[in-house]
Design goal:
Radius of gyration of chain A: 18 Å
Mean pLDDT of chain B: 84
Strand content of chain B: 15-25%
Bound molecules: adenosine-5'-diphosphate, magnesium ion
Number of strands of chain B: 15
Number of helices of chain A: 9
Shape of chain A: globular
Low-confidence stretches of chain B: none
Radius of gyration of chain B: 32 Å
Shape of chain B: elongated
Strand order of the largest sheet of chain B: 3-4-10-5-9-8
Distance between the termini of chain A: 12 Å
Oligomer: heterodimer
Structural class of chain A: alpha/beta
Low-confidence stretches of chain A: 1-9, 240-248
Number of helices of chain B: 19
Largest sheet of chain A: 6 strands, mixed
Helix content of chain B: 40-55%
Strand content of chain A: 25-35%
Number of domains of chain B: 2
Number of strands of chain A: 10
Mean pLDDT of chain A: 87
Strand order of the largest sheet of chain A: 6-7-8-3-9-10
């Protein structure tokens, strides 16, 4: 375990160091990430920009404990996620992180409200969910209401427009009050207007609630909405925030 | 919590799940019906044979001339505390002529008054016991009608028809089933004259002597239904002494009277084997004193056709064994069909997992563990198994309970008749269920469904969430 300076960890919520990842496709081995370093402070809104296929999603998945790096560390709240068990990582995804994907990824069989409550359903056992149901339902409804979806609670994803689906996906990501929100091309599947609405939602979350957001996009204009923009190119993050404490 | 929600949603919304549910229902019902019918058949078979045979039989298989000194045996056997009664029985092939109809029959000579304490023969009689008007515990061969009536019906006879003896016939000798499956007896069923021809048996060579042909007229006085078709179709019961005489087995000069069998009825709850041992001791005793070939005396096995003391199961071993093997065979066949159902569930679940790959990625991305995902699919299998087993057991129960009605409907609507009394020995299909078998079949159905879901569940659990999310 690398020793970490105490003052740095108080100012850091999530840190990636030396992250490498390659994929084998047939005979060829594609090195997608060749050592990425990134430190995120609480409340930051970070955008990672890069061309399609540059490995942005891969990096986001690794930082979000969805995927494992070949090498490097992902440090979250003093824990190295790469060394945690898969069920511990599942717990982090459930309670600490939230994900918004380009293609919404809602469960078609569940209603808007049920989709929103998914993280809470996973977190709670049947009994604790039953006893907290009213409270959780209110919380989910409140989030949906804040996203302008209060009239859509009983609908199925298939009955919604793209922008509405993405707002449901955001609501689902926010359900368990995540410390870090990961957004992978959240507007990539939407028209310009709807995309702007979604961006407005993210900005508002960041500004009003101090939500830490890591967003990935291939759109330079969108990236500029963030506090800080990094570029992923040739497997390396440029303009990366290299605080003195991370070098080691 | 999500597991239950997803299971319920998938159950309701996935059409394909209904197919696996249907497979479980059908297989459960099918196996239950087959095991119940075959098991019921086997039990009816055993009960029928037990009732027709008695508990223990002394016989000399392979010999036509039977064995002597049976009165002595009966006398001593009847003194045993566990014995209810013992009676001699004769069996012979014969020729029956009734109206213009002739057939080869089995002629059984018996002492009717003794049969009530030996086996279920009395209960099988229609006129004398089952027909409430003439019910009696003392069945007999006595002619039920006034003498003049018989004389009127056989006016050209040489001997006085009122003196002819009575005979009891197997039900199907005189009765037929109508389309509704009810037994119909002719109006003059118990005024029917018939002739039985038997051949006397030469004691010395124990062979049939063609010159000893005896033809005797009888009146049908009753019919016996043991419910075993092979018995009821072609058996004629006549008075023991008459048949003994006709077969030349009565006492003659120095030669003692002989019989083919002694049937013994035991008191209820008696241990068969223990009783057999005691009866064997008596028979061995007499065999030693009278120099009879006994199956085994002092460790020496007799050759030829020795006298044997057999349990009722041994007497009917050929029939019972065949039915038992058939039950095992059919159950195995349907068990194999049920394995196909497990495979079907496996395939359907695999399809569902493939189809739901992205959903699996989604719930994993929101924090579901691999174990949790596996539980969703195992729970799904369990839900299908439980629902299918409940409905299948219910369906099987209803089918078995109404199987004779269903069979009749099939007969009238489609002209299909599967259950044939000639093949299956019984005129109705057994319709009883064994609760233990029901429980076992239920549990096997549930377990099989979970097993079918096991491999797909493991595959789902192992899915990498990122790859699952990329799934198109
Ligand atoms: N599971 C995989 N197997 C093989 N190659 C992959 C896999 N996942 C991603 N890649 C490849 O890695 C590269 C980066 O992918 P990705 O992170 O999705 O890029 P981006 O999100 O920047 O468009 C692409 O060339 C892609 O084809
Ligand atoms: Mg991408």
């Amino acid at each position: 375990m690398p020793t970490t300076a105490p003052q740095a960890s108080t100012a850091t919520i999530l840190r990636a160091a030396g992250v490498r990842k390659s994929f084998v496709m047939g005979d060829t081995r594609i090195e997608v990430l060749k050592g990425c370093d990134l430190t995120i402070r609480p409340g930051e809104f970070i955008a990672i920009e890069g061309r399609s296929g540059s490995g942005k999603s891969t990096l986001l998945h690794i930082m979000g404990a969805l995927d494992e790096a070949d090498d490097g560390t992902i440090e979250y709240a003093g824990r190295d996620l790469a060394r945690e068990s898969s069920s511990a990582r599942a717990g982090v995804r459930n309670c600490e992180f939230g994900f918004v994907f380009q293609f919404y990824h809602l469960l078609p069989e569940l209603s808007v409200l049920e989709n929103t409550m998914l993280a809470a359903m996973i977190e709670n056992s049947w009994f604790s969910f039953r006893s907290r149901r009213a409270e959780l339902r209110d919380a989910a409804s409140a989030i949906l209401k804040s996203l302008g979806l209060e009239h859509r609670l009983k609908h199925r994803p298939a009955q919604l427009s793209g922008g509405e689906r993405q707002r449901v996906a955001i609501a689902r990501a926010l359900m368990n009050k995540p410390k870090v929100l990961f957004a992978d091309e959240p507007t990539g599947n939407l028209d310009a207007d709807t995309g702007r609405q979604i961006m407005a939602v993210l900005e508002k979350l960041h500004r009003d609630a101090g939500q830490t957001i890591i967003m990935v996009t291939h759109d330079r204009a969108l990236a500029r909405t963030a506090d800080r923009v990094l570029v992923l190119k040739d497997g390396i993050l440029k303009n990366a925030d290299r605080t003195p404490s991370t070098t080691g | 919590m999500y597991k239950l929600t997803l299971i319920l949603k998938y159950l309701r919304k996935r059409r394909i799940a209904w197919v696996s549910l249907l497979a479980v229902i059908l297989c459960t019902a099918m196996v239950l019906v087959v095991i119940s019918v075959m098991g019921g058949w086997l039990r009816m078979f055993k009960e029928g044979f037990h009732g027709a045979t008695g508990d223990i039989v002394i016989a000399r298989p392979g010999s036509l001339s039977g064995f002597p000194y049976y009165q002595e045996m009966i006398e001593r056997i009847e003194q045993l505390p566990e014995v209810n009664g013992a009676a001699p029985m004769l069996r012979s092939g014969g020729l029956m002529k009734i109206g213009g109809y002739r057939d080869v029959v089995q002629v059984v000579g018996l002492v009717p008054e003794k049969m009530g304490r030996v086996n279920g023969f009395t209960q099988s009689l229609f006129r004398q016991t089952q027909n409430a008007d003439t019910a009696t515990n003392q069945p007999s061969f006595k002619l039920p009608l006034p003498a003049d009536e018989y004389r009127a019906y056989a006016d050209r006879a040489v001997t006085d028809p009122a003196d002819w003896p009575g005979a009891i016939v197997g039900t199907y000798v005189i009765a037929r089933k109508n389309e509704k499956g009810e037994l119909e007896r002719p109006a003059a069923a118990y005024r029917l004259p018939m002739t039985i021809t038997v051949l006397g048996i030469d004691e010395e060579s124990s062979s049939v002597d063609i010159n000893n042909k005896v033809q005797r007229p009888y009146w049908v006085v009753d019919d016996s239904r043991t419910k075993i078709w092979q018995i009821d179709d072609k058996t004629i019961y006549v008075p023991f002494e008459l048949l003994q005489k006709d077969l030349r087995m009565e006492a003659f000069g120095d030669a003692p009277a002989r019989t083919n069998e002694v049937a013994i009825g035991l008191k209820p709850g008696t241990n068969l084997e223990a009783a057999r041992a005691k009866i064997r001791d008596i028979v061995i005793d007499i065999a030693k004193a009278r120099n009879l070939p006994m199956e085994e005396i002092d460790g020496v096995v007799a050759l030829g056709a020795p006298v044997k003391v057999m349990l009722w199961q041994e007497v009917n071993a050929k029939f019972i064994g065949a039915v038992e093997r058939e039950k095992v065979l059919v159950t195995m066949l349907f068990g194999i069909i049920s394995i196909v159902a497990v495979f079907l569930i496996f395939c359907i679940f695999f399809m569902i997992v493939v189809e739901k790959t992205r959903d699996i990625g989604i719930i994993k991305s929101v924090g579901a563990t691999s174990a949790g995902v596996a539980q969703v699919f195992l729970g799904y299998g369990l839900a299908i198994g439980l629902t299918g087993a409940v409905l299948g057991t219910l369906a099987g129960y209803l089918i078995v309970k109404n199987i004779n009605w269903l069979h009749e409907m099939m007969g009238t609507l489609m002209g299909v008749k599967i259950w044939d009394a000639e093949t299956y020995a019984f005129d109705t299909i057994p319709n009883t269920l064994n609760p233990n078998e029901m429980i076992v079949i239920f549990c096997v159905a549930v377990i099989a469904s979970v097993i079918g879901a096991l491999v797909p569940a493991i595959r789902a659990a192992r899915l990498n969430p990122v790859e699952a999310l990329r799934w198109e």
